[in-house]
Write a structure and sequence with these properties.
Strand order of the largest sheet: 2-1-3-4-5-6
Helix content: 25-40%
Largest sheet: 6 strands, parallel
Oligomer: single chain
Strand content: 15-25%
Low-confidence stretches: none
CATH topology of one domain: Transcription Regulator spoIIAA
Number of strands: 21
Number of helices: 13
Length: 415
C-alpha cells in the first residue's frame, strides 16, 4: 500500500493552487482527506501576520499530540519560521515554493532537509484535476512589487512575475476538458499580470473566454490602479463574474499614507460607483486597528466608506507582522477598540449586502459546491451564498434559480 499524504492548507487561494500542484506530483503516494489516517502531513503555511505563524505552530502541536505522521513545512511560513521549526525538530523537512514540483522525491528522502530554493522562480506546473473542488484555481502570477507597510509577502514570495500565457491557457483547456466550468484567477497580485510581457489580465481573460467549456471567470483581489480602460472594456462580458474584489485596506487619507498604499479615496469612490452602476457587487479588504488609527481617523474612514457601494468585505483587525514597517509604528490601537470598530464596519456591509440582494433579485446562476445534511451550498454571479434544499445530489452542477427567498444572512431555495 502507498503511504497516505494529507495536505493542510492555510491562507490564500495561491496556496490552494500550490497544494493542488503538489497533489498532482505524488506518483508514489496516496492522497487522503482524512488527517487521522495520514503517514505524511504537508503543511502549506501562511505568514501574513504573527497570528498566522501561531496558527501553524498550534497545528503542529495538534499533530504531535494526535498522530505519528511525518510533518513537512512549505508555503510562505517556510521563509519566516521554517528554520526555527526545523532546528527544533518539530518538522522533518522544510521546502520553498520553487521545490514543490519535486515533492515526490522530497518525501522519499530519509534524511531531514531544509531547502528554500529560488525565491524568483516562475511556476510551470500544469494541474489536470482539483481534488475535492468544483471550481478550478488558476495561478497566473507570483510575488508583489508593492511595499505596503504592514505586509511581509513581497519578502517571502519575491517581486511580481507572470506565468507564461500559453501555459495558463493550456491549463484552462485541460481543466475545461475535465469538466470544470468556473475558473478563479489567483496569484499574489493578479492585477500586475503581464506587466513585463506586454500583456495584461484583461487580454488574458479575453483569450480564456474563447476556450470551449469555460462558463465563468472569477478574480482574486485587484488594486484600484490596475483597473484601467482596457479592463473596463470587458467588464460587461457575460463570462465575467458580476462581483469584483478591489483592495482598499482603508479609506482615511492619513491611514493610507501610513500604510504606504497607492490608492486614494477620491479616485476609489469614483471607480467603485462607476462599476456598481453596471450591476456589480463589490468587495474589498480592510484593516481595522492599524497603528495610528485614531478615533478621528476612524470616523473619517466610516464617513468615507458610506459613500462606497460595498457589498462584501474581508475585514480583519491589524495583527503585527515582525519585519514590516508597521510593526514598529505607534500609537497602537487597543484590541477592544479594534473589535468594536470591526463590528461597526461589518454591520454596515452586511446591511449593504442585504439591500443589494433585494434589489438584484433576478435569475441567479449558481455553481453548487458542497452539501451538508441535505442542504447544498453555492455562490451566484454576485458571489452571494445560496443554500438549496434538494432531494437529489446536485454537487458540481450549475443551476439557474429564479424562485428563492432573500434571508438576512444568505439566499435560500428549494428544488
Amino acid at each position: 500500500m502507498k503511504p497516505k499524504v494529507y495536505f493542510k492548507t492555510f491562507g490564500c487561494r495561491t496556496n490552494v493552487f500550490d497544494s493542488q500542484v503538489m497533489m498532482s506530483g505524488l506518483q508514489d503516494y496516496e492522497i487522503t482527506q482524512d488527517e487521522s489516517s495520514a503517514d505524511v502531513i504537508i503543511l502549506n503555511s501562511c505568514t501574513v501576520t504573527n497570528g498566522a505563524d501561531s496558527s501553524v505552530r498550534s497545528y503542529i502541536s495538534h499533530v504531535e499530540k494526535n498522530s505519528r505522521a511525518r510533518i513537512y513545512l512549505t508555503g510562505c511560513g517556510a521563509h519566516t519560521k521554517g528554520e526555527s521549526l526545523f532546528e527544533s525538530e518539530r518538522v522533518f523537512g522544510v521546502f520553498g515554493q520553487s521545490e514543490k514540483s519535486k515533492i515526490n522525491s522530497l518525501l522519499k528522502n530519509e534524511e531531514r532537509f531544509y531547502r528554500l530554493g529560488d525565491l524568483n522562480f516562475v511556476d510551470d506546473a500544469i494541474v489536470a484535476e482539483f481534488v475535492g473542488k468544483s471550481r478550478a484555481f488558476i495561478k497566473i502570477q507570483e510575488g508583489c512589487s508593492f511595499r505596503c507597510s504592514y505586509c511581509i509577502i513581497p519578502y517571502v514570495r519575491g517581486d511580481s512575475r507572470s506565468l507564461d500565457e500559453a501555459q495558463i491557457l493550456e491549463q484552462v483547456r485541460i481543466l475545461a476538458g475535465n469538466g470544470f466550468g468556473e475558473f478563479i484567477l489567483t496569484g499574489t497580485n493578479i492585477g500586475s499580470y503581464g506587466q513585463n510581457s506586454k500583456s495584461s489580465i484583461a487580454s488574458l481573460m479575453k483569450k480564456m473566454s474563447l476556450i470551449r467549456g469555460l462558463r465563468r471567470i472569477r478574480l482574486g483581489s485587484l488594486e484600484p490602479i490596475q483597473i484601467n480602460d482596457e479592463f473596463m472594456e470587458i467588464i460587461t462580458e457575460p463570462w465575467l463574474e458580476r462581483h469584483l474584489h478591489i483592495a482598499l485596506q482603508h479609506t482615511s487619507r492619513e491611514m493610507l499614507k501610513l500604510m504606504n498604499r497607492r490608492n486614494k479615496f477620491e479616485s476609489d469612490v469614483k471607480l467603485f460607483n462607476t462599476i456598481a452602476e453596471k450591476g456589480f457587487a463589490l468587495g474589498t479588504d480592510f484593516i481595522v486597528g492599524h497603528p495610528g488609527e485614531s478615533e478621528a481617523r476612524w470616523q473619517e474612514a466610516m464617513e468615507n466608506i458610506a459613500h462606497i457601494p460595498l457589498t462584501h468585505i474581508h475585514a480583519f483587525t491589524y495583527s503585527k507582522r515582525d519585519g514590516t514597517p508597521s510593526a514598529s509604528m505607534n500609537p497602537e490601537v487597543n484590541g477592544g477598540v479594534s473589535k468594536l470598530r470591526m463590528q461597526e464596519l461589518q454591520s454596515l456591509i452586511n446591511t449593504n449586502n442585504f439591500n443589494f440582494r433585494q434589489t438584484h433579485n433576478g435569475l441567479l446562476e449558481v455553481l453548487i459546491e458542497s452539501e451538508k445534511d441535505g442542504f447544498y451550498q453555492g455562490y451566484d454571479q454576485f458571489y452571494n451564498k445560496i443554500i438549496i434544499q434538494s432531494d437529489e445530489d446536485i454537487r458540481g452542477e450549475w443551476k439557474s434559480i429564479e424562485n428563492y427567498t432573500i434571508l438576512k444572512e444568505n439566499n435560500y431555495a428549494q428544488l
